[in-house]
Structures are given as structure tokens and as C-alpha cells.
């Protein structure tokens, strides 16, 4: 049989040649194959509030969202998003012109980059970065410019001088993630002020991935970049229901920005999914209107789980970087006599019955991330306790 393809050219678009199966798929499959506890991929192992799940069921039964919802999102959700931004951060948005509902934050990131970046544009992203950032920049034809967060005094910190020096005449956009996945770093007021000043001075657009906004563990809480001087008009802010309400499978995210920027992002988004998650949009609208006590309890529960896992990992011999936000703990495996995070994570299920993620996949400079491994703590307490006991037995022998 004659091949229908040319051997001279690969099937996969060359912009995506460096991206194979995601590490999350690989490690989750390994967890299933070995019966290990999966602390790799960041999804909760329990559902969110029962009343919100029932709101989705009711929307299905009432026929709300079973057909195509409006392109920008259902009005109830867009109104709830603007009310949430106003109530928590004092940021005022027009629900009809400055909000766009997306198929999760991942689509929001993709649509924003496809809309705003052209071939030859440089996009600065903090390294290590969520893996879809690199793929979306590549799909847009942009050039990613990593600025590395490095360990310092128990956390990963941004070097503002390095950030400034990374900006060139070709820089189009800053891709900012705070709270930061995978390191758990939360950018400080001073750091965000400096980023805002740089963006204004160099006339840069900013995409601010703030999906972990409700998982900042200190009392200061989340500081949205759009609230800083000069940033409202140049920032595309991204939020998500999945991380806050533990319904990651519903895939409800959103963009808030100026009418011009939202229109640009919507122009790309409409040719990706067009619309998604119809009945779930109505449920998320109710979720965003939950009382402050829900968000406080959610944060306190995750803080307790963070502390449990961090202590257990330290007892097992890891060096632990206690996160200020998100639901991930980054560790250094060198105290265990290991240096290769990939090899370590691939062997960990057999050695300890636990799955983690090698941070090196989130780096362009792989050597920078080689000894770091990420664990997720968005799991039931008994699961985390079991995991830490397995790790302690594997590496300490008790």
C-alpha cells in the first residue's frame, strides 16, 4: 500500500514538534498502571459544594444551556464575575463588554495569545511555567523568553533586574502567573508594582493568569495585577471556576479586560470551542455568589493540607519549599541523593506507590529545574497521610 504522506515532512506542525504527550498524561497513566497515589496532576479527589452541583443539575433539567449559550457567556455568569471582581478587589467591569467566558483557563490563555501575538513577537513568561504557556506561544508564532524564578530563603523569587533586561523592542506581552504554578510563589506588592511600571514604561500587554486567586495563604490575600496603576487598560485577567470550586471537569474560565482586548480575545476564542459548558455556567454563577465564609473555609482547608503534606515530605527527607499559594508543593530531591527529577518521578511509583511531577518539564533551561519535583495537596486528608507514610517508609525506612 502506498503511503499517503511525504517522508520529507513530519505530520505534526513544526511549531508543536517539541510538545509530545503532556507529562500529566504520562504520570497519571503510570499512577493507574501501578495503583499509586496520584499527587501529580492538580485535580481534587472530591467534588465541590453540593448546592452548586445541584444548580448544574437543575439547569440541565430546566433546559438552560443545553443548546449553544451566548458567545460571550450566559448573562448570569458574566454578571456574577463582575460582581465578584468588584466585591473582592474593587475592580469594575461591564458584564456586556468586558467579560468573556471560556472553556476553562487553558482556552483563555490560548485565545489571548493567539489573538495578541504575531510571528516574531516575544512573550516573557516566568520559568518554570505551566506547560500550556509554551505550546500556546508556539501556536501563535511567538518567541518565548523565560525569566527564571530561583530558590531563595525557602521560596522561589523573581529577579526584577533579570525581568527588565529580558524586555527588548520585540517584546509584545508579559505572561504573569500569580499565585504561581508550579512553585507556589505569590508575587509581592512591590514586585507587582515594578512589573506594572515596566509594562507601562515599555507599553507592553499583560496576560495575568490568576486562577489560584482564592488560594493565597497569608492574610494579605490576592493582589490582581489589573488593580495597579496603568494596568486596567493593558491587562487581560484570567480566572477559573475549577480551582476554586473543585469542579475541574466543568471547564469554566473567564477573561476580564477592556472592550478592545476582550473583543480581540473573543475573535480567536470563537474559532476554538465557539462556546462550551452551557449548564455549568449557570451553576458557576451561583458559586461566585457564595458567601465569604465559603472562600475562607476553602482556603483554610487547603492551608491545613499544605502543612500536612509539607511536613510529611520533610520527614521523608525532601527539602520542601512551602508554597504561599496554589495547591502544589515543590521539593528538592538532592537531600535524598537524587539529581534527576524525571528519573526520580518515573521510579517513584514502584519505590513508594506515589506519583509526582518533575518540575523540569516546566523549564526551557532544563538544568535549572532538574532536581525539583512537584506534589499536589488538593486531595483528601487520609490520602495525603497515606502518601506521606509511603514516602517516609521508602526513603527513611520507618
Q: What report would you give on this structure?
A:
- With 398 residues, the chain is α/β, with parallel strands linked by helices.
- The chain has 14 helices and 15 strands.
- It has a 7-stranded mixed beta sheet with strand order 2-10-9-8-7-3-4, with helices on both faces.
- The mean pLDDT is 95.
User: How far from one another are the termini?
Assistant: 60 Å
- What is the N-to-C order of secondary-structure elements (H for helix, E for strand)? HEHHEHEHEEEHEHEEHEHHHEEHEEHEH
Strand content: 15-25%
Question: How many helical elements?
Answer: 14
Q: What proportion of the residues is helical, as a percent range?
A: 40-55%
Shape: globular
- Largest sheet descriptor: 7 strands, mixed
Roughly what is the average pLDDT, rounded to an integer?
A: 95
C-alpha Rg (nearest Å) = 21 Å
Count of DSSP strands? 15
